[in-house]
Design a protein that fits this description.
The chain is mostly beta strands. The protein has one domain. The protein has no helices and 5 strands. A 3-stranded antiparallel beta sheet has the order 3-4-5, with no helix packed on it. A two-stranded antiparallel ribbon has the order 1-2. The radius of gyration is 16 Å and the shape is elongated. It starts with 6 loop residues before the first strand and ends in a 31-residue tail after the last strand.
Length: 82
């Protein structure tokens, strides 16, 4: 099944403090307009073209250039609205 990368729309340019490990930020994502047809999410796979969600999964990648300063994830919420 194909996946669609979400677009960050709230929290752009926001970063956590490198020295304060309890400095957590909240970010909000949405489906980019390029992936919508008449305002509805649409995708094509080998089984055909589908509108809205058939499945919902979250992939979170925590990246760091230094293994001694690894990012952490305190909490996450995921809500899929159609």
């Amino acid at each position: 099944m194909p996946w669609t990368e979400l677009e960050l729309f709230e929290g752009v340019g926001t970063f956590c403090s490198k020295t304060n490990i309890r400095d957590y930020k909240e970010f909000r994502y949405r489906i980019a307009d390029a992936n919508k047809n008449a305002g509805v999410y649409e995708y094509t796979s080998s089984n055909g073209t589908f509108q809205e969600f058939r499945r919902f999964a979250i992939k979170i990648e925590l990246l760091s250039s230094n293994i001694h300063n690894a990012p952490t994830l305190m909490d996450y919420r995921a809500i899929a609205l159609t």
